[in-house]
Task: structure prediction
Amino acid sequence: MQEQIINILADATGRDAADFSDASQDLFTSGLLDSMATVSLLLGLQDAFDVQVPVSEFDRSQWNTIEKIEQRVKELQNA
Amino acid sequence: MVNWISSLPNFSAYGTPVYFIYLILALLPLGIGLYFGKRFSWYEALVSFVFIFLMFDGSSWQQGISLIVYVIYETLLVMFYSRYRRQQNSAGVFYLLAGLSILPLVIVKLSPAMVGHNSLLGFLGISYLTFRAVGTIIETRDGMIKEISPWKFIRFILFMPTITSGPIDRYRRFEKDYRQVPARGDYLNLVSKGIFYLFLGFLYKFVIGYFFGQRFYPFFEQLAMTNHSLFSWSMLGVMYTYGFYLFFDFAGYSLFAVAISYFMGVQTPMNFKQPFKSKNIKEFWNRWHISLSFWFRDYIFMRFVFMATKKRWFKNRNALSSTAYMLNMVLMGFWHGITWYYILYGFLHGFALVANDWWMRFKRKHLPNLPHNKLTTGIAIFVTFNFVMFTFLIFSGFLDTFFFS
Result:
């Protein structure tokens, strides 16, 4: 799953997958994710994992690392 | 009744040092309750009512009436929509309700430009209450707010420390704080932070802000009007003194609101985080009037991008982000008021965000070896700071007086 998330992130930000090698780095403070890319990320996750994340559910502190994204997606899949 | 109310003394929020003494004395029983793990909701409502009453009595009594009518109106909208949303979820009804909840603010903002005088619907703080009300409707639409009572909603939009000028809190965040009484250690921590913010606020608003606003700014203003040259040292003086006044006055006020919220066991979000050390304009908007810019980010920018991407309105990603930035900031400009200088202010910031994104892309693509050191960081901060100060000069409306009177 992590690999898939990295690909979605690379797509959303227009960067290389290599920029996302650290699964625990903060994607927002490192400047990798901005609001624009966040929306692409949400839509990407929606397509890939069939989970609905409303924009107002998106609390940055809950989604700021690859590890946390993976965790959230799993929670939403099991919900 | 009217005569009696209009003859009462009026205390604007955080207006004078003595206000704080009354306020803190009145909040003391609440604080003792929180220390012992109890929230005295009724007492809190009473104190809030008294202090809100004192903001809107006396010469402001008409605003007080408008406030009451406004709160009833918004509460009815929110309750109606919440009930409707449990059964159905049509986009049309959502837009209608969101539109109706913004309507009073739109009328108030348009009135000066359209009919030449202020609308009777207006009162100090209407825009901040509107942000909270619309935000609540949007989150109800998203299914994030499942149940809400009139009492909870009113408690949220009328939260006394933040009523007239924010910070703009979010319903779910506020409600969570309100429900949970902080543990004793956490509460003491909040109080000690609050005391620090209170004194920092005094320094900002009553000392530094006072000198910039009441001493330095009028001095340069007069000088610039007598010189009457656009490109002059005195104009530069107007620009910097106004910019610093704006920051220290508003940041000081926000610190008061946060401090008093903390005393009441509610962690109202901070509004400013050292904005003048931003290295680019995007960072600036993460540090300046944060609760407003995040409101626009979450409820305007991201929702617009989300919808536009889903419906494929744009072929090009950069065209989409540029449109979203412009929409976001120009709307923010209009929100400040329908005057050429507020709208231009919004436009310039939208444009700067577009330019900043373009520069970031250009740098990554064509200048991968551009050095990154203390000097380049210093230049970035300098450019951002001066751009921001320039937009504040426009925002101040001084140029309107300068050119047209």
